[in-house]
Amino acid sequence: MKQSNMLLPTLREIPSDAEIKSHQLLVRAGFIRQVASGLYSFLPMGKRVLRKVEDIVREEMDAAGANEMIMPALQPSELWKETGRWDTFGPELMRIHDRHEREFALGATHEEVITSIVRDEINSYKKLPLTVYQIQSKFRDEKRPRFGLLRGREFLMKDAYSFHENFESLDETYDRLYTAYSNIFRRCGLNFRAVIADSGAMGGKDTHEFMVLSEIGEDTIAYSDTSEFAANIEMAPVADSYTKQTGEEKALEKVSTPNQKTMQEVADYLGHDLSEGLKALMFKVDDRFVLVVTRGDHEVNDIKLKNLYNASIVELASEEETLNIMKAGFGSLGPINVPNDVEVIADYAVKYVLNASCGANEDGHHYINVNPNRDFQVKEYADLRFIQEGDQSPDGQGTIKFAKGIEVGHIFKLGTFYSEKMNASYLDQNGRANPMIMGCYGIGVSRTVAAVVEQFHDENGMTWPTNVAPFHVHVLALNVKKDEQRELAEKIYETLKNAGVEVLYDDRQERAGVKFADSDLIGIPLRITVGKRADEGYVECKFRRTGEQQDLHESDILNVVT
Ligand code: ATP
Ligand code: MG
Ligand code: MG
Ligand code: MG
């Protein structure tokens, strides 16, 4: 590609609204432009990188046995009403209506649409398991769109959904996609960690987030310095402040023992408005289950048990009843996969905590993390506290450290929440109908682009890893008015292009200083500069990341590049 033909508007100034490096650099280097808050156009360079990430995602998803499809972004409200999420998803769901006043959502996610397709098309165990995915724009009316591509209101997501006869099959697919995700982020060059993002008591195996390690990450990860243990700590409970603030007596004061079945009913009973952002914490203390329902107004990343000041405590009658509530699901969170072996949990003095947030908080999702009461053997209720740096790791190996992370992927065992509500069942070998067991798997494709820039830049610009670089080689003709420079640069450009190398050729009539600065900013891995020694056939090769450089004869270039 010749640079003179490209829409590649670079800027010297840092855009005033861009707080973080990836946002600043992607704008300055002419990869993206903002259209409105949280809405971005990808200019040609940005689009090339986006496509590289997409291609990696596609290859790994296909290799994992998933089939690509595409669903409409526009979704009828009826589907969302079937699962109740029309009400529980909150204001993050963008809603519009057509000329006949019919309501629609702009897809924030596609569980409802895919479940409606599968329920119509699949009815036998013989056609299971099945995994499908799409790469598509998603819409979420984020409370605070910010950080450029990291938190947009329209963004590119890969979302996948799997359907199974039983949990063993779900586990297999989940594990395969876990591996695929690891491959994807590794191929993108990222330094990442898969962390437990657990929705409760179940040993932390039911949901993982893939976190790119970065100072500007909005999530905090607790990880062991010597083992594989890593978990999101967004909302681990703090007993210290819990007891200090409320006193155990008061905390355990009974509000009632109603027979709640869903979070919505709990909310209704307590007169809470789910849209305010309701949060439920479930504790098992000795033999009692305690559901703590708190009012909203918590900020994402600042969800602490200070909310317990306004908490309502509901003591639940029995383990069975509690499990029923968990299975029924918590608002937008959906059901909790309750394992068959609940007994395992009973080893703990404080058996477990279930953290769930529902309704219209900024995230629109759940916050589940390291649970001291699950991951640690906490002897007494009053000892519950947030996991802290320096604690022993829950797996007994090593010491806990904290790091900041950007969530680029999330995999989740859904169970039968959607299939039961939407009647997606299959006939088993004995001809009996059962609800399908589901999983869902997301990757923020556009967010991943920004995450790569967060990890790969220096003071002069971006330093793309080869696999996702917009081009592999940047050829600069320092002075295109000089025939020997222009001719040699063009020859090298053609040679590389014919050899299948992705090459950008700076053929512009600009000063050398401008070309170098733009080239550093754009960050293509290898630069070939054709300058003063063009008449001898010599050029300068420079690796963007390391700064390593050497003079090469033009006849050796192909050997170095390919
Ligand atoms: P977050 O916690 O950052 O709000 P999420 O948990 O709401 O993300 P998921 O519902 O798990 O997001 O969606 C799957 C993936 O989509 C996320 O892991 C993330 O990479 C990406 N994603 C989610 N929201 C956005 C957004 N507003 N802009 C860009 N990417 C996003
Ligand atoms: Mg979110
Ligand atoms: Mg999240
Ligand atoms: Mg998530």
UniProtKB/TrEMBL annotation:
**Enzyme Commission designation:** 6.1.1.15
* Catalysed reactions, as listed in the record: tRNA(Pro) + L-proline + ATP = L-prolyl-tRNA(Pro) + AMP + diphosphate
Q: Self-association or partners: how does it assemble?
A: Homodimer.
Q: What is known of its domains?
A: Consists of three domains: the N-terminal catalytic domain, the editing domain and the C-terminal anticodon-binding domain.
Please provide, alphabetically and separated by semicolons, the GO molecular function terms listed in this UniProt record: aminoacyl-tRNA deacylase activity; ATP binding; catalytic activity, acting on a protein; proline-tRNA ligase activity; transferase activity
What does this gene product do? Catalyzes the attachment of proline to tRNA(Pro) in a two-step reaction: proline is first activated by ATP to form Pro-AMP and then transferred to the acceptor end of tRNA(Pro). As ProRS can inadvertently accommodate and process non-cognate amino acids such as alanine and cysteine, to avoid such errors it has two additional distinct editing activities against alanine. One activity is designated as 'pretransfer' editing and involves the tRNA(Pro)-independent hydrolysis of activated Ala-AMP.
Q: Which domain of life is it from?
A: Bacteria
* Gene name for this UniProt entry: proS
What is the native source organism of this protein?
A: Salirhabdus euzebyi
Q: Would you tell me the protein name for this molecule? A: Proline--tRNA ligase
Family membership, please give it: Belongs to the class-II aminoacyl-tRNA synthetase family. ProS type 1 subfamily.
Q: What class of enzyme is it?
A: ligase
Where does it primarily localize?
Answer: cytoplasm
One GO BP: prolyl-tRNA aminoacylation
| Keyword DNA damage tagged | no
Does the record bear Disulfide bond in its keywords? no
**What InterPro entries is this protein classified in?**
aa-tRNA-synt_IIb, aa-tRNA-synth_II, aa-tRNA-synth_II/BPL/LPL, Anticodon-bd, Anticodon-bd_dom_sf, Pro-tRNA-ligase_IIa, Pro-tRNA-synth_IIa_bac-type, Pro-tRNA-Synthase_IIa_type1
